[in-house]
Structure formats: C-alpha cells, structure tokens
Design a protein that fits this description.
Blueprint (H helix, E strand, L loop, with lengths): L7 H20 L9 H30 L5 H17 L3 H7 L4 H22 L12 E3 L6 E5 L2 E8 L2 E10 L4 E7 L2 E9 L5 E7 L2 E2 L2
Antiparallel strand pairs: 1-2, 2-3, 3-4, 4-5, 5-6, 6-7, 7-8
C-alpha cells in the first residue's frame, strides 16, 4: 500500500509514530548519557511497536477490502512488516525486563493490542467504508465502480488497492478521454482513445504504451 494514496492524516500518523519510535536509537548511543535512558529508549520502541501494529492491522484490512495488486507498493508493505517485525520483536525481552513483567505477558499484551486495532479498522472501514481514507476515490451505487478525481481529470471504473485496475473511463481536463482496460493505474489491454477534437483510435496497450 502506497501511503501517498491515503488521506494526509494517515500519512501524518504513520510518520509521527516512526519519528518518535526512532528516537529510541538515539537514546541507545553510547555518547548519549542521562538518567533512565534505557527506560526512555524502551518507551520509544514501545510507541514504535504501536505504530507497527497500526500499520500492520490496517494493511490487512486495506488489502482485504480493496483487493491485491502485485506491484512495488504491495511488496514494499510486506517488506516493512517483515523487517520492522523482525527488528522490534527482538526487543520484547527488553520490554519485559524494563517493565518488570514476564515475556509471556508482554507478548499477550502485544497480541491484544494488535487484535483490538484490527477489529477497530475492520469495523470502521468495512467494505466500501475503506474509501474514507482515500485522497482521490469514492464508491458509487455500483459496488464494482468507483469514481476518482485527480488533478488532470476524472476516472470512473474498477479499482484494486486504490489503483485503476480493470475496465474504466478516464476523462481528461483537456477534453480527451480513454475507455478501456487498466492495470496498476496504467492503460493495459484494449482501449479507445478520443482526442479533444473527437478523433477516436482503438489500440492495444501494455503498461501504458501502445503495442498495436
């Protein structure tokens, strides 16, 4: 999931958690010396953990309701989840020690936080409600058709993961239009282009380029 396809609020939340959590790295530097720095570092990592759970649970809900497109954004999301998960879960024992609770209880706390966040996102963004967080796209009465307003025109058609994917119509502000197939927000398949002057051409496209 590309963060820039979401509402700006979602972006601010993501980067705020990442910034605050990353301060833990600063507190761990040897030349940084002050009282209780280990506790502060653990607190920062705990906040980063919460951000990680917010991101991971939302990703599951997002792709569950918008569909999966195998592209860079999808693999990037999986990579973030895997790398941050591997890094952060290595600190669970540190959390348990700092907060003076058992490893098992610490894992139970994290699991409960994750489940709570997942249920929260599932309830509030169920099915077409997920488009509340989109910058550009909104649902229509037809469950398969969405409408997206961009700076250079309006798209009406099928979407996957907030990307133009399937069949749709793009009416450009210039007066030109394209009616046809899309993949990964690029023209891909058979489609008809109409210029502002009314000239129509039907072509076969591949990744945004005419091949026939």
């Amino acid at each position: 999931m590309s963060i820039n396809l979401l509402n700006p609020i979602a972006e601010y939340i993501f980067w705020t958690f990442l910034l605050i959590g990353s301060l833990g790295l600063l507190f761990e530097l040897k030349f940084v010396k002050f009282k209780n720095k280990k506790i502060l570092a653990a607190l920062c990592y705990f906040i980063l953990f919460i951000g990680y759970f917010i991101y991971t649970s939302f990703i599951l809900v997002f792709y569950g309701f918008t569909g999966i497109v195998l592209n860079f954004s999808f693999y990037w999301s999986l990579g973030l989840i895997a790398i941050f998960g591997w890094w952060l879960f290595g600190y669970v024992e540190t959390f348990a020690e700092v907060y003076n609770i058992s490893y098992k209880k610490m894992m139970t706390i994290f699991l409960c936080i994750f489940l709570f966040l997942y249920l929260f996102f599932f309830i509030f963004f169920y099915e077409d409600k997920i488009y509340k967080v989109s910058k550009y796209c909104k649902p229509t009465e037809n469950i398969k058709i969405k409408i997206c307003k961009y700076s250079n025109g309006i798209y009406v058609g099928e979407l996957k993961a907030f990307l133009r994917h399937g069949k749709g119509i793009y009416n450009f502000n210039s007066g030109a239009s394209y009616v046809g197939e899309w993949q990964n927000s690029l023209r891909d398949g058979t489609g008809t282009t109409r210029t502002a002057e009314g000239v129509e051409t039907t072509s076969i496209w591949k990744k945004g380029k005419i091949i026939e």
